[in-house]
Design a protein that fits this description.
heterodimer; A: mainly alpha; MetI-like fold; B: mainly alpha; 2 domains; 15 helices
Amino acid sequence: MRLSAKARENIAGWLFVAPVILILGLFMLLPILMAMWVSVTDWNGQGSPFKSGVPFVGLDNYTKLFAEEGLTRQDFMTSVRNNIYYVGIVVPVQTILALGLALVVNSRMLKGKTFFRAAFFFPSVTSSVAISVVFLFIFASSGAVNNLLAFFGVQGPQWFADARGILHLALDAAGLVNADSPPAFLMSGGPFGLSWWEWLAGPSVAMSTIMLLVIWTTSGTFMLMFLAALQDIPVTLEEASMLDGAGRWKRLRFVTLPMLKPTLFLVLTMGIISTWQVFDQVYVMSQGAPGKTTLTPAYLSYTQAFDNFEYGTGTAISFVLFAIIVLFTIVQRWLLRERNA
Amino acid sequence: MAAVRADHGARTVASTFVGYFILVFFALVFIYPFVIQLSASFKTESNAALNPLNPVPDPFVTDAYHKVFLSTDMPLWLGNSLIVTIAITLGRVLLDSMAGYALARLRFKGRKALFGAVIAILAVPGVVLFIPKFLVLKQFGMYDTYTALILPIIADAGGVFIMKQFFESIPRSVEEAARIDGAGPWRTFWSVVLPMGRPALITLTIISFQSSWNELPHSLVSVQSPDLYTLPRGLAVLVSGSLGSGNQYPLKLGAAVLATIPVAVLFVVFQRYFVRGANEGADK
């Protein structure tokens, strides 16, 4: 029996995509469904989570994160706080740095473009674990950074042991509060089981080293994206604005930046998505210490499951994280649509 | 008029100077940590601790590397990483380009929906899958095997997307000639289209190699036996495990150098494909 050409193409198409469908279905879609089940149970890792003996707990694992007083909520909210500061600082800084570097590298008067581009990009292709080891060495208490600071007469902190929040330190330095005995009205009350004082800690000194590391490794990739976009701006457009007498800043403000807007949004979105997922660096450098100030939801979900055998809580945390990321992506898309219209 | 021009010239010189200053400063910031890493791995332990900034190891010793190979499981980790990385890279290049080709060129029912699914999967953040992957591997009885390290990530939505974009960009005429000569879809794909896809295939090979060589979390959730540790996993254990027993920085940094070298070499040779990969990633 001969099949028609159309039927043959149909079969060929499905055969070509079959392996990928199988892999992605079995190892992405199916696991997510299984995890949804686990997140409403109290499974402890013994045997299969689908056996009848596994206790069903409904939404308990989720309410424990938000509504129930206890260590779980305390840890989760601390991790959320840490990650909010982390996202809030890393994303703008890496975006501005990437844009700035791209503008300088792209400038027509400078030579050695290829070299500088490679130098800025190289950190982002290397192993996050290897880089974390390097930063552990560089930020060690008598390490390179503190040596450099000492050269300028500054005594550097014990980076990885320092749980003090940067915002606390800044408020203290400004004379607004005394960090050793914070004002009572900030100590009492506050949303989700953390006091206002704790919410206002800012990233700890230890977390700052991780933020520096991540800014340092990701700026290069984003710089490349800005560079590609800059090279797409027609030269005639710049020349026209030069003839119109626009100075450098005006040109940047009214010609270049508007053309870069789509890339800027893309970089911000990708930045937010990836900073909410910070894991490798925490795993290698700090494991959440000191004082839980480098704990992040991604890392907490991992330890809840694999160290504490509370798989239900762990999966619940990862779904909440999923929701946070989706929410941010939707908001970004929506903002982008508004601007395009 | 001349004054204006002279002023303009001076400003150009000044801004060129500032431009180079910024570039050189940041180049140092981005590269010097690697210089420190490399030199410290050839220092004695006390020298590494005393002069961390000095780029010249004095005395120059290779003790750290002897120790890495003789007293840690480095040979095992390197071997495992090679096996896993090569398998994943080959798998991704083949499977992703097959799927990419079908989605770009073959007309079959459900193609649009499938492509939509690929895009949706691209949006799933990796950290969300840690525990789910572990669950499914346990359920299938694959946990703690080489299969667990390789199979779940042997195809990826990002690669499919890149290949689809690429196949859409090449002209149809060549394929049609092959079709008219009576070649079936597989023959057309394998001996006509794929050879034309060299640039995209190199890009995909490189980003697959780089990402699977550096992969840590997948190893954490798919295996537990030290015999199956890949290099990033072994390195992570080496670093966190020896915190109590002195610092041993030259040893750790030497191990980190070994983890960095393969990708660094690829980067030097194939830099333009890395750049392409980064920008293709952006098109998603």
